[in-house]
Specification:
Order of helices and strands of chain B: HEEHEHEEEEEEEHEEHEHEEHEHE
CATH architecture of chain A: Orthogonal Bundle
Helix content of chain A: 55-70%
CATH class of the largest domain in chain B: Alpha Beta
Oligomer: heterodimer
Shape of chain A: globular
Largest sheet of chain A: none
Structural class of chain A: mainly alpha
Strand order of the largest sheet of chain B: 9-8-11-6-7-10
Distance between the termini of chain A: 53 Å
CATH topology of chain A: Globin-like
Largest interface: A-B, 24 and 19 residues
């Protein structure tokens, strides 16, 4: 009888919803700055990809990385993929380059004490931009 | 009766609306509308990108009124102090006046002093009533048409003139004129100030590294005195000035006197080639690396040629300094 009035099963949270909790757990927009510093420092120190950043404007890049991390952490963003694709189009990037960035992202989250479960949801979102970055 | 109510409601609505004054017009924000959305709705052209407070494309300047803190999220202390804010994240509770670019002030003022600093650098002092932050730069005009940017070496509240260090660039359109022809008593036109490389009071104990090449000393000389004299900065301050040859360096006596007065300041002069015992023969990057091996928690100021600023910025960042704590002013050669 009660079965008739059974509540609708709550849908499992999407990666975006899970990641949004990471954004809040880290402390919102203010905390993203610290995360970007750690992340960007790792990227610049990574021989596999650091040469891509030799001639760029570090501050402009920092702002872009902040936009990317805000998106990956599920914060407020307006990601369309167009800029990401445009910016990386002529760089001849490979899977290895993408993985290097992803590893640095994971390292950053570990350093910030983020749980493995939350890291997984962030990585899921980060990987969703892969085709844009590799221009596929 | 109902028409009176209507009239009252209209009047009340008009009064309570947050009005944004922009480019000689007024826009009343609607409920929940950001400054960006309001301006766009009214047909104004404002650059924007993510609308989420990240890309900073919609950065504007508040010229009157209060900026809500969330509209300055992620901006540097210098940007905040200049009233910069992100229009997409700005939901003001009161009216504001906003502008796309800082309104430039043009002033005609006399040169009151001219002195030789090195074989090809002169110091100009101009009696200009300018409101600025030490370390910012101004545009100096020749015949009201050609202009070049020069950093301010002077400090408001300490110097009652503005001071520029001008290096003579052979074939340049402005510096040979300023160097050879400009004399005490001549009037010049200046415009400004501009730039975000200046001391922002906050943590008086924070260690600081200021480093520059050649006339990059000009803004640093302003910034370091602003920190010490106007803001009583207590933390250790390292000032490192470099050049190719020691005879391109200057202000030895002034900086000696300053560091004698302020024990938390230490000054180093370095050059690739030195014939002066007061100047250490060293590579400035290596020198700074050894001086500050761990840049964590530091506030850094970098001034000089673009290549120097770029390389040093990366070095300091990799040594642990937060990006938001690195202020830089790159001297870019003029195209024409």
């Amino acid at each position: 009888m009660f079965g008739l009035f059974k509540k609708k099963e709550k849908a499992a949270p999407s990666p975006e919803e899970k990641a949004a909790s990471v954004f809040d757990k880290l402390g919102g927009a203010a905390a993203i700055d610290a995360a970007v510093d750690i992340f960007y420092r790792k990227v610049l120190a990574d021989d596999r990809i650091s040469h891509f950043f030799d001639t760029i404007d570090m501050e402009a890049q920092h702002v872009k990385q902040k936009a990317f991390l805000t998106m990956a952490f599920g914060g407020p963003n307006n990601y369309s993929g167009k800029d990401m694709r445009e910016a990386h189009k002529h760089m001849n990037l490979t899977e290895e380059h993408f993985n290097a960035v992803a590893e640095n992202l994971v390292g950053t989250l570990q350093e910030l004490g983020v749980s493995q479960e939350d890291i997984d949801s962030v990585v899921t979102i980060a990987v969703s931009v892969k085709d844009d970055v590799l221009n596929k | 009766m109902s028409s009176t109510n209507n009239w009252l409601a209209k009047l009340f609505a008009k009064k309570s609306a947050n009005t944004i004054r922009f480019a000689d017009s007024e826009v009343a924000l609607q409920d929940g509308e950001s400054v960006l959305d309001g301006l766009l709705r009214a047909g104004h052209s404002v650059p924007y990108g993510c609308r989420g407070g990240s890309c900073q494309s919609c950065m504007m300047q508040c010229t009157d009124g209060d900026v809500p803190p969330q509209a300055q999220q992620g901006l540097t202390a210098a940007q905040q102090e200049l009233g910069y804010f992100l229009a997409c994240s700005c939901h003001p509770s009161e009216s504001m006046s906003v502008a796309l670019k800082p309104a430039a002030e043009k002033i005609i003022a006399p040169v009151i002093d001219k002195a030789q600093l090195t074989a090809n650098v002169v110091r100009l002092r101009i009696k200009a009533p300018l409101n600025y932050r030490a370390g910012q730069f101004i545009n100096l005009f020749r015949n009201g048409a050609v202009s070049r940017s020069y950093s301010l070496a002077s400090v408001v509240g300490v110097d009652d003139y503005i001071e520029l260090h001008i290096k003579r660039v052979e074939g340049g359109k402005l510096s040979p004129w300023a160097y050879d022809d400009l004399s005490v008593g001549d009037e010049v036109a200046i415009e400004g100030p501009n730039g975000q490389c200046f001391y922002t009071p906050g943590d008086a104990q924070q260690p600081m590294l200021l480093t520059g090449l050649g006339t990059g000393l000009a803004p640093l000389y302003g910034i370091v005195r602003d920190a010490l004299v106007n803001h009583q900065h207590q933390g250790p301050i390292q000032l490192v000035v470099g050049s190719k040859h020691s005879d391109q360096l200057y202000l030895f006596d002034e900086l000696k006197a300053l560091s004698d007065n302020y024990p938390n300041l230490s000054v180093s002069f370095v050059a690739q080639q030195s014939t002066n015992p007061a100047v250490t023969e060293a590579d400035i990057y290596q020198y700074c690396k050894e001086l500050v091996p761990d840049g964590k928690g530091y506030k850094v100021f970098l001034c000089g040629a673009e290549s120097f600023v770029k390389k040093m910025k990366k070095q300091c960042f990799l040594a642990g300094t937060n990006m938001a704590d690195i202020a830089a002013d790159a001297f870019v050669p003029s195209g024409s």
